[in-house]
């Protein structure tokens, strides 16, 4: 994961961009990975860990309508979280992650391992992604974190 963080940091520095994170099922893993590297203050603006629906509403402005009709684990919620992180920060780009890491919480419609990631860049339409990761809770969270870092690298490179 360190290689991904270094690659992302270099890309953000090169573009002069600041990053904000909005994390639910990863519980701050992305923020932790990024800030574990010296000099991260040059590219990391802030992180939101919004595990509860209430936190998503209060800190990121996710609407009650999205939460009621689509749920916290949905593409709509991921996009709202990413846009909220941009709105509530001085960042140029944000990433959000929401999902079901397990071992409990899955349903027939939304199984354990279902994760939504969204990337929002100022002035652009947000991008949303759906994944079905496998493994135990720790593995699902690790895959979500690594995938978010890879998506961020691609997004920054395309700016």
Protein architecture, described:
This protein has 159 residues and is an alpha/beta fold. It has a single domain, classed as CinA-like (Maf protein, Alpha-Beta Complex), CATH 3.90.950.20. Helices cover 43% and strands 20% of the residues. The chain has helices at residues 2-15, 29-35, 53-60, 64-69, 75-87, 137-157; strands spanning 19-23, 44-49, 93-99, 114-121, 127-132. It has a five-stranded mixed sheet with strand order 2-1-3-4-5, with helices on both faces. Helix 1 runs parallel beside helix 6 (137-157). It is globular and about 45 Å long. The mean pLDDT is 97.
Secondary-structure topology with pairs:
Layout: H1 2-15, E1 19-23, H2 29-35, E2 44-49, H3 53-60, H4 64-69, H5 75-87, E3 93-99, E4 114-121, E5 127-132, H6 137-157
In short:
The protein has 159 residues and is an alpha/beta fold. Helix content is 43%, strand content 20%.
Number of strands: 5
The low-confidence parts are none
Span of the ends, CA to CA: 23 Å
Number of domains: 1
Shape: globular
The protein's oligomeric status is single chain
Strand portion, in percent? 15-25%
Mean pLDDT: 97
Q: What is the CATH homology-level superfamily?
A: CinA-like
With helices defined by DSSP (H or I, 4 residues minimum), what is the helix count?
6
Q: Write the element-wise H/E pattern from the N-terminal end onward.
A: HEHEHHHEEEH
Strand order of the largest sheet: 2-1-3-4-5
> Using only CA atoms, what is the Rg?
14 Å
- What is the level-2 CATH architecture name? Alpha-Beta Complex
Main beta sheet, described? 5 strands, mixed
- Please estimate the helix content: 40-55%
The CATH C-level class name: Alpha Beta
* CATH domain topology: Maf protein
How does the helix and strand content classify structurally?
A: alpha/beta
